Amino acid sequence: MLKAAVFSDTHGSTAPMLEAARGANADVLIHLGDYDRDALALREAFPDTPLFSVCGNCDIMPLAPEKLVVPLGPVRALLVHGHRYGVSAAQADWLVYAAREEGAQIAMFGHTHSPFYETVGGVTLLNPGSAGRGRTPGWALVTVFDNGAIACEIKTL
After folding, report:
1. How does DSSP assign the chain, residue by residue?
2. What local confidence, expressed as pLDDT, does residue 90 receive?
3. CB 3.0–4.6 Å: which of 12, 28, 34, 61 could bond 56 by disulfide?
4. Residue-wise pLDDT tens digits, 127-147
5. What is the pLDDT of residue 89?
6. How far apart are CA 21 and CA 18, in angstroms?
7. What residues contact 57, with CB distance under 8 A and at least 6 apart?
8. DSSP string, 95-132
C-alpha cells in the first residue's frame, strides 16, 4: 500500500500545505503547479520523501515540467496542472484521453481550485482543490493498494 499527499494551487501559501503533509505520513508528495516553486518547501521539509511536481499556468520560468507520468505502487499516474487539457468543473474529457494514451489509471490535476474525484472512462480523476487560495482550501490523500485499487480522500486545510 502506498499513500500520496497531493497539493495544487498553493500560490505562495506553503504553511498550510506543510502542516497537512506533516500529518499525512505519506510515502510520496505531489504538487500540481501554481506555484511550482512551492514544491521546494516540501522538498526542504521532507528530504527523504519522493516528490513529484509539475508547473501550472501561473508559473513564470518554471522549475518543473508540464507533465509527468509516474508509478504509484502498481498504477501509473498522469500529473498535470490541467490548463493545457481544458479542464473545468464539468469537463475533463481531454485529460481522460491523455491518461489512456499514457497507460495511466489515475490522472491528477489542479487549475480549477475546486476539488474533484470521479472515475470517468476507467480513469480515476483527482483534483485536490487549492491548497492556497479558494473558498475551502484543501488537499487530497491518495491510497493505492497492492491490487491496484485507488482510494482518494479530499481533505480541508
Report:
1. -EEEEEE---TT--HHHHHHHHHH--SEEEE-SSSGGGHHHHHHH-TTS-EEE---TT-SS-SS-SEEEEEETTEEEEEE-SGGGT-BTTB-HHHHHHHHHHT-SEEE--SSSS-EEEEETTEEEEE---SSSSSS-EEEEEEE-TTS-EEEEEEE-
2. 67
3. 34
4. 999 998 777 899 999 999 999
5. 65
6. 5
7. 33, 34, 81, 83, 111
8. HHHHHHHHT-SEEE--SSSS-EEEEETTEEEEE---SS
Q: Do 157 and 138 touch, CB atoms closer than 8 A?
A: yes
Phi, psi of 152 (to 5 degrees): -130, 135
**Domains in the chain, start-ordered, CATH in brackets?**
2-156 (3.60.21.10)
Taking the C-alpha atoms of residue 115 and residue 155, their distance in angstroms, rounded to an integer, is: 9
Sheet strands side by side (includes 123-127): 67-72, 75-80, 106-108, 123-127, 116-120
| Residues 2-61 pLDDT 10s | 999 999 999 999 999 999 999 999 999 999 999 999 999 999 999 999 999 999 999 999
Query: Does the structure show a pLDDT above 90 at 109?
Result: yes
Q: Give 48's strand partners.
A: none
pLDDT at 70: 98
